[in-house]
Write a structure and sequence with these properties.
317 residues; alpha/beta; single chain; 6-stranded mixed sheet; 39% helix
């Protein structure tokens, strides 16, 4: 669905003079960045990366400055999957349309939906992506919201009349039903679930900070309290996060980067984008709480993490 949103803009370029242009940020998910790089390599578009600040926040005025007369799409993720930074999408959308009234604004809300309020009317976006497995639905199902004002949406897959004729192919009713039920639960219980996850996240943060004291710990992506309620990204210099996670793999499920692309040995591009040096980047742990996470589990995880982190620091000195 994320790639589909980009394809939508690229297929609507009949009236665009010059080479089409897309504006995005330097902390987007690979579903956006890799697609744009492929389009650029094939000569289909150019794109501009707007840099974020040290909290992973996109400045609306920077987006406005990046928009050109050939810009057809601005795509900024609602919240980041690694550090949990939540963007002021309403301000970004206004800034983009102030620069060019007919530009399409898309947001990848995969990480946000079910954790924080995602109201497309309040955000002012034309397109919004959500992904099922991030809110309790089965893997393999997602959705793309298209505002009714976007009338020139082309057929993406031909050969059938499914999905309003836009995407041919027999629908997977089981997965769609699962997504619908997950959205129903998120809509009904979202504030309660979000509050619980935030309480457990804050408990985990406080236990880790106390357990590591006086070791300095950086908290990433939580500027002005705008971070996701379930996400805790911490960075400790001289700590080898990969070794910590390997040691605790039977007891603690966590990540040293984004789980969907953490197989490489390099430093995360998101952590580099927010200005972390290599020592802090390699010592970064991404921890998450869920609707079923208990206080006891948090205390145990913090105890194990602190012991392993302190051992890792001692070994590196």
């Amino acid at each position: 669905a994320v790639v589909l949103a980009s394809d939508l803009a690229l297929l609507q370029l009949a009236s665009c003079t010059g080479r089409p242009h897309v504006v995005t940020s330097n902390i987007e998910h690979p579903a956006i960045l890799e697609a744009l790089r492929a389009y650029q390599a094939d000569g289909l578009c150019d794109f501009t990366l707007v840099e974020v600040d040290g909290e992973g926040t996109v400045c609306p005025s920077a987006v406005e400055r990046a928009v050109t007369e050939n810009t057809v799409l601005v795509t900024i993720m609602h919240s980041n999957n690694e550090v949990g930074a939540v963007q002021d999408l309403a301000a970004i959308a206004k800034a983009a349309k102030r620069a060019k009234r007919d530009v399409l604004v898309h947001t990848d809300a995969a990480q946000s939906f079910g954790k924080v309020c995602v109201n497309v009317k309040e955000l002012g976006v034309d397109l919004c992506t959500l992904v099922g497995h991030k809110l309790g639905a089965p893997k393999g199902i997602g959705a793309l919201f298209i505002d009714e004002s976007v009338t020139a949406f082309p057929n993406f897959l031909h050969g059938g009349g499914q999905e309003g004729g836009r995407r041919a192919g027999t629908e997977n009713v089981l997965l769609i039903s699962g997504l619908g039920k997950a959205c129903e639960i998120a809509s009904r219980d979202g504030p309660r679930i979000s509050s619980w996850m935030k309480s457990r996240r804050d408990q985990l943060r406080d236990r880790i900070l106390a357990g590591l004291d006086p070791v300095p710990v950086l908290i990433n992506g939580q500027g002005d309290g705008r971070g996701l309620p379930n996400t805790l990204s911490i960075s400790i210099a001289q700590c080898n996060a990969s070794e910590v996670l390997a040691e605790l793999s039977e007891d603690v499920a966590a990540s040293a980067g984004a789980a969907c692309h953490s197989g490489g040995a390099g430093v995360s591009s998101v952590l580099t984008a927010i200005g972390l040096d290599e020592s802090h980047a390699r010592g970064t742990l991404r921890l998450s709480t869920g609707r079923l996470t208990t206080e006891r589990e948090v205390d145990r995880a913090a105890e194990l993490l602190c012991a392993s982190i302190l051992q890792s620091i001692d070994t590196s000195l």
